[in-house]
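Quick illustration, no need to memorize.
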Amino acid sequence: MTMDAGTAITSGRTALGIEFGSTRIKAVLIGPDHAPLAVGSHDWENQFVDRLWTYSLDAVWAGVQQSVSALAEDVRRRHGVELSGVGALGVSAMMHGYLAFDAEGELLTPFRTWRNTNTGRAAERLSAEFGCNIPHRWSVAHLYQAILDHEQHVGRLDHLTTLAGYVHWQLTGEKVLGIGDASGMFPIDSAGGYDTTMLTRFDQLAAEAGVELSLAGLLPGIARAGQPAGTLTEAGARLLDPSGRLRPGAPVCPPEGDAGTGMVATNSVAPRTGNVSAGTSIFAMVVLERELAQVHRELDLVTTPAGDPVAMVHCNNGASELDAWAGLFAEFARALGVDVDSSTVFQTLFTAALGGASDCGGMLAYNYLSGEPITDFEEGRPLFLRSPDSRFDLGTFMRTHLFASLATLKIGMDVLQKTEGVRLDRMFAHGGLFKTEGVAQRFLAAAIDTPVSVGDVAAEGGAWGIAVLAAFAAGRSPEQELADYLDAEVFTDASLTTADPDPTDVAGFEAFMQRYVAALPVQRAAVDHVDVGHRPAAPQTETTSAAETEEQPA
């Protein structure tokens, strides 16, 4: 086994995937059978600067270099060889956001991430003008908001991209995006390009606001899974490995967003399949077999890495508030002199939730650390509340917070399933929220009234998913489709555990949601009347935890 792996590494029969998640940068090296051979990672945090969430580009390169260095050390430790080259390479990152550059390649304004919700005016106007939902976090919403706000940098724009697109550009010199990531910048038409009618209308809207530009010239090119997207240059190899050991020349697949690599990592790229990813954010990706009948602000229309249409329900707030409560219980345990690790804390708390009241006994929670567009909140104020006669025990308390972490997702999924009548053959769940066996999985099955599967197929998350896409691009036959490749060559031995929806849980979740929606004015009052100033509370700074860990998309 070790010799075979060592031979694969030294002969270049490998693929390297690198993913920039919200709390972790991760590198995974896979062999010819797509099994992970080595892993390296680096934890990082976003910053809240001038009321915007951002990461510095210095942090991007420092983090990826540490991840690749840790990967190379893992190769030496596990296989006794040096990592001097790879057979193929791919880059993935959190989708959407705004990275704007001038003609000299200089960043014009700090990176604006998917988490920002300051683009409300732009998103509303563009959605109305385009006749499709343009979410707050899409790149075009950020650009139009900058135009509306008369930001000076707009006049110097030469190139817009996402985080994955930026890293790929620096590694290869190519300004290109995978179609899945591109679909989070600007709407894609049925031919697989940016919608030309909407491009023309955007240019007109910009001109009306006093800005002359051609958006088509600012956006990256588009490539589908399996298509060539450049090779690792000498300069790019040095960016990954300043020691100079890593050779240039490896083919690099189209860069993708973390949602797309999460779909690959869960074998959810065929129609009537879907996956839910839960970490710092939580979102569902459902591959469609037909167009939706209406436009819904709760649903984003994006694509798989192969270009098939996908309905995305994206919620800004996932497991961060759960993590904060777990940290409080862990602190209490330490105060009692009990030394417990975070995994034990989460296992204990999540398991207790199984014995809680099915409808959460009158308790309510809102996990809004940041704004939540699904329910029309531009800022977050985490809340827990109960009535005087609420059932107040640990199990019900934890069930309330677990239900709360899935509540906005359920709102969007109800639109997809009940209003649009979309059917699912299977839904896969992954991410830190589902690490405790049989808890969040069971509650998600109740929330969407659909069987939910979990398993080890996504153990290394999106970094593994983009490595698989790199292997696919480097080794596919011309006629082979991505879904067939995954079924025939990657997931043949996958082992899954499936939870069917329990009728009592389904009814309990529905009762919880009636109270949740009815009490949204309480959340509105908190946003309007509780001022957090210019600094977020400490838990809003991203940290890696047992529930939040970015083994998936952000």
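The longest strand covers residues 36-43.
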